Amino acid sequence: MKLIYQNWWKYLSIPLLFYVLIAGLLGEVPRLPILNETIRVLHFHVPMWFGMIILLTTSMIYAIKYLSGNKIEDDHLSIELANVGVFLGILGILTGMVWANYTWGSPWSNDPKQNASAIGLLIYFAYFILRGSLQDEQQRARISAIYNIFAYAALIPLLFILPRLTDSLHPGNGGNPGFNAYDLDSNLRLVFYPAVLGWTLLGFWISTIRYRTRRIEETLDEGGI
Amino acid sequence: MKLYQEIGQLISKDISLEWRNRYAINGILLYTAASIFICYLSFQMGAAVSPIIWNALFWIIMLFSAMNAIAKSFFQENDQRNFYYYQITSPQGLILSKIIYNSFLMLLLCLLGYGFFSLVLGNPVQDKSLYFLILLLSSFGFAGSLTMISGIASKAGNNAVLMAILSFPVVLPMLLMIIKASKNAIDGLDRASSLDEIIVLLAINVIIITLSFLLFPYLWRS
After folding, report:
1. Which three-class secondary structure state does DSSP give residue A58?
2. Which of A13, A48, A103, B220 is deepest in the core (most CB within 10 A)?
């Protein structure tokens, strides 16, 4: 909780993302068949999914914390983390569709990972609708925390198990040229890891701002000031 | 009272309630039968339904019947009576008894639906025993996930739309596995090829029932 009000990690994301933008767009990349220059999407598309999963996991942890401690702050943090996580997920789908348009020939190719991520977003949209349908604050917090944990458990097999049972068009799956096959080691890895860290930190930053705005609105509504 | 005694009593209570008000279960059976008959008529009296369409249709009908059958598990009793149960039973006993009861209800519904569906649209299934195993696992899976969702939806004002949108995404991973494994059973493929799907299905069932068991007390308290 204290981390929300500290700034060092927020400022850390700024140089990281500038580095990712510059090095990711201008740096050397390996020449792979089909992928060619589009391999640079690795720094902008894949970190969205990493960020989404990390944010949604944290949201689930705060849902558990709410259920055990009944502190409304935990619920506010949980919903805002889910909001930003889903936003990153939408960006991930959109960047993926742009990329797929150039490499696979069409934006939506019935790829298991694409389908799984679309279903995953549906789960969290249902979560938002559930929240909207409940009026009482404590009850809304409790029931949506329960659904949050339930939904997260449904998301795990969807994102990590099902795509492995079928061949995916994604690089590295089903005999497609992957990043690992040619080794990410050289320049890609140097940009990819900072990219994951930077985008995730940016996601956390946005959700803390939204969390604090929500706190202020709550206080104003209660007539506290 | 021991947990299993409590579960036994709650299940027998559910059965006798169901038996007294037979309209609910008859309604679900009619719902399933009517939707199967609609499919039969829309496909020009079952002229030529390819196995893929046969399979997809069957599971979509089963999904909707399951949702309607299980949605009522927390709606049918009024608030005062729920409050009474709250006083005398443990939440774990209540959710487990509901899941077990719904599992057998779903199994009955799946078997009857399967029989009627084969009657009107033909039966292309080659590996029947594997198909029955999938029917069994899917009824338990549907019951496990939908019972908890029905509890959540009942807290949010018994809204039928809410029940549907909350349950679709949670059931979907399970449904994908079921459709894939049952397609293998229809084609009569080697059983080893559906092993992955069956294991994942079992794992999802275990996760969902464990989570229901852990989370229901929090839901029940509110």
Report:
1. helix
2. A48
